[in-house]
Amino acid sequence: MDVKTAEHEVQLAAGRLAGKVAVITGGAGNIGELITYRYLAEGATVVITGRNTEKLNAYRQRLIEDEGAHPERVHAIQMDGSNIAQVREGIAQIIERLGRIDVLVNNAGSAGPKQRLPDIPLWPADLHAPDTETLVQSVGNLLGITWNMVRAAAPYMQPGSSIINVSTIFSRTDYYGRVPYVVPKAALNALSQGLAKELGARGIRVNTVYPGPIESERIRSVFKTMDELKGAEDGTTANDFLSIMRLAHQNNGGAPQKTFPTPIDVANAIVFLGSNESLAFSGHAFEVTNGMDVPVESRTTFTSRPGLRNVDAVGKVVLVCVGNQVEEALALMDVLNSCHAEVALTFRDRGALIRTRNIFQERRYGNSRFKPPLFQYLNPLEPESVDEAMREIYESTGGPHYAIIMPSFGFESSEPEFLAALVEVSDEQVERFMQEEIISTIALAGHLARYWYGTDALPINFMPGAPHVLFMSNPDDGRGNLYADMVRAAVEELARVWRHESKLDVARLNREAEAAEQTTPIRKFAPVWVHQMVRYTNNEAENLAFSCAWAAKLFNSDRHISEINLYLPKEIALTTGTHRLSFGWAESLIGLHIGKVALITGGSAGIGGQVGRLLALSGALVLLSARGADQLQQMRDAIVSELRDAGYAYAEHRVQIMPDCDVSNEQQLTRLVDHTIDTFGRIDYLINNAGISGAEEMVIDMPIDAWRHTLQANLISNYSLIRKVAPLMKAQGNGYILNVSSYFGGEKSVAIPYPNRADYAVSKAGQRAMVEAFAHFLGPEVQINAIAPGPVDGDRLRGTGERPGLFKRRARLILENKRLNDVHAAVVRAVRATGQPVAALLKLLFVNDVQSLLTNESLPRQLREMVERVWNESDPDGSSRTFLLSEQIAEKLGARLELGGYLLSSDSANGTSEPQTMRDTLKLEVLPPDPFFTLRQIDREARKVRDGVLGMLHLQQMPSEIDVARATVYYLADPVVSGETFHPSGGLNFERTVTEGELFGKASPAAIGRLRGTTVYIVGEYLRKYLTALVRTYLDECEVGRLVMITETEEAEQAIRATFPNHASSGRLCTIASRGDIEGALDAAYVQFGRPGPVVCTPFRPIPASLALTGPKGSDWDNVLNEADFAALVEHNLTHHFRVARKISLIDGAQLVLVTPATGSRSTGEEFAMANFIKTTLHAFTATLGVESERIVHNVPVNQVDLTRRSRTEEPRNTDEEAEELIRFINAILLVSSPQVEAKESRYRSRIYRGNAITV
């Protein structure tokens, strides 16, 4: 068959495509016309598609009439390939007519706007003649058409089918002024590779044809236009491409001559790929170029680590533009800041911008010298946002000089933006990918090009060197990186053309500036230098840090790497072969703890992780445990990597982990110790670091389960591990136990109130008290100490992910408690004033509409005044002004009133009915929208908290996690310290502390007289001698109206009644056996005998007298206090007081006294130590509750009486001294249980007469 076009005629054989159905997009166009001829000649049934119905039908008719094509073998279907709906409709028509598709030739496309990068029209409003396409349209026509056709046709294609994508060799070369054409084509190249992988499993082959410059008047015209844009001589571009061709052809004179390929060369390649001759080819590139020498990719791989010690970026401003990659943005900022560069963080994702701002609020709170970076929203698809961001950056910093650009979508969202598929992907995702990752990237590059070379206001010395742009890919997405590779290919070509254009443009600009008559200094330009860092080839934890370090190095060195794509090596350490520590002072640690074995709980992050890291660098073998497996593994991997860099052999062996270890689980603690021994053979250091933040509630709002959980995780677990490890340390002759406490656990003889954190404060005080009390028994073989940092600048302070940092959590809690306390106080005052039932008052308030409440005339004055304060003082933009209560605050309010006995009846007290429950009877009529408190309110309160803490720091700066870890590792090297607490807290000095005090004096007769006629509650059982004397004193000497004795057992109840038969029979002495339900016993007492004034709470059970704290070296430890015994000690001496105190604190007119266990001359050293442990730990609770009680309406004073002294030599030695101690005990109780001074009488005395611990 003779095939004719306007410029070529060829004689061809037929039949290679017989029986195949081929769809050819753009089949009536230039090369498409010839492809169609060839396919018909080879026996195929051809469907040509295009936008122009008239052109398609005319061409089909010409094929039938002029070329003799059978009408059933040539079909024309109109469709706009960039419109997926039309594509699907067109494919459906093909399948309906012909039943199948065997070959898909994606030939359609467009030329795109022919403009330099700075001048590319993004939207129709930007178009200027002679261009008729925008960048958006160009990407849709060149990448979108092919992608749409494959997605629509592939489901109908059978094994053996062929897809042929027509690209261009210019997608891998310099191509001045044609970014909108070559960059989408480059993305198409990678798309073809991804499709070959995806469809190859179904037997469908996918190949790419790369035509070179095709001999035609059209290409000559294109090159001529390009020469004009460049300002080059006519023929320059054509000669440049001819010069890199390997193959010459005979000219008319028979001499070899380099010429461009012809359309028939392209069509022949496409015929081959559609025929069965190409069955073994897929994923291949067929270059129809006469052998043009064009590399497949411009790439190199990093083979060394960047050294940053000599990097000086002072005065440099770096624009970092990311999508939603908050972690990467912050890591880049930190590294660049460490080199003294200034960073402008910009985000295409508004949510990521907000999250980052919130993180920096927390960072700012943690460091008084912190300077926040510049944050901006920058979306290249919204040009005004780019202009605004660049203007703000320039006005604030004088930059940017460099730019780091990341993809629009990272992996920090819960759902992946793009899936591991290219065919079975939604239309929305395809469109979004092209918009956000291809078009947006080109648009941003155009903005930067215009900014750097088109801003007249920039000073002459604006650029200290060449502008440098680094495109940085995401890490491995775990799904084949199909989309990342399309971005990689597109950005490579963008970088290539940008470099080329910039080089030529800058040369022209500088020539023009020199040629012009200038009376002012000439502004010199330097061409933009562009790279792309490809990170998805490396899966190591070091990926981000390595990438950030190289980014900083590339911007601040004289090297110009010619390759565009800079790949991370698959294995950084093996490839670089270097061993370099990331910080200089670490060298002083080497060998400090060599040969030691450290077991660290809570070692996945924070202080525990950093202590493990530095101990490992110091030479210790380390076992890290934590609940989370992933984070723990990451920490281990990072430490092992550093160990290799530090030169340690067998680094993988030196750090081991035990994930899924919950320290509140006794069985897991046993397994942890066994695992450490099995792994390393011994334990030299036990670092009790794991713990939880606690309930973060006031005592009166804290559930008992939450209290117990905090003590179990933070305190009892410490003893359990000590009990398991101490025998091993004793036997091996040495060991070191370190409890990671907190400054808010207090100091020797001093308690520090920690409002809203009583459970945490008690657990941390217990860790410290354990050290002080048990050091004598663990020595001489074992040291035991504690560290007590204050707030530490780390993840917990700043917050991670969706969990806010410490100051914001405290701020929200303060705001919630203030509202809760205000409403609670108003309800209580209204009950006092009106006598109305609480349920009736709550029904009024639970309307929950502040405006409605303000106009409710039936509202008692106390409630109305409270509602008015809410309206006047709340943020006008928040729900907390419009609505009185959030659901959470309402639930707490109901729980408080229920706990305080406001909902009790006589039936519920005698057991015939359950107490009324607020959650079952009253609900808010309207729930406010979230958030209840605005971010502005929380930030304002958080700043107060932060400023308050910083104001108490002598150094005015919080230590970081690494600061605390470094101090700890040096502290562990001290062999002569035990029983002490070290405070690496930045010099924290809390103003309000409560010191243990001696009893001096006694209650005045007037104070004792105020007890006459009152109701007194005494809770206790085992302190029989003390309780008997106290009952007698209250009833006989103080003439109280009634005394209610609450015991644990019925036997004790009967014994006390038998001791005082007359008072019992007269009704002045009443008794209740709690039988484990102390709350129920108190409720029963309220209803039957009235609410109390003084309440004295003593332990129900004694300290275990027959149990030791340690065993002799090498002996068994069967008689040593075990984990269950210690847990019981905590339950009966700490939790017991908590249970009583949280109810009594809600009673008007009550005075609460907490009594600690007694010791005497016959007590063992272990009993004395345990008693001191209890009184020290309990004082943290007493002091905290003393402060909290000032904030609630009942204002119940709480104090503590200690029956154990610090020194055993001061304990009573004979009966006379014991009698004297008993008198001192009675005096102490009367002193703190008689009605106390209220704030309205004396603010000073009302504050100092609470939270005390009085030693008798």
Explain what the structure shows.
The model is unreliable at 365-370, 456-464, 906-919 and 1242-1246 (pLDDT under 50). The chain folds into five domains: 2-288, NAD(P)-binding Rossmann-like Domain (Rossmann fold), CATH 3.40.50.720; 299-576, NAD(P)-binding Rossmann-like Domain (Rossmann fold); 584-802 and 969-982, NAD(P)-binding Rossmann-like Domain (Rossmann fold, 3-Layer(aba) Sandwich); 806-948, no CATH class; 994-1255, Rossmann fold (3-Layer(aba) Sandwich). The termini are far apart. 46% of the residues lie in helices and 13% in strands. The strands form eight sheets. An eight-stranded parallel β-sheet has the order 12-19-18-17-16-13-14-15, sandwiched between helices. Strands 31-38-37-36-35-32-33-34 form an eight-stranded parallel β-sheet, sandwiched between helices. It has a seven-stranded parallel β-sheet with strand order 5-4-3-6-7-8-11, with helices on both faces.
Summarize, please.
This protein is of the alpha/beta class and about 1250 residues long. The strands form 8 sheets. It has an 8-stranded parallel sheet with strand order 12-19-18-17-16-13-14-15, sandwiched between helices. Strands 31-38-37-36-35-32-33-34 form an 8-stranded parallel sheet, sandwiched between helices.
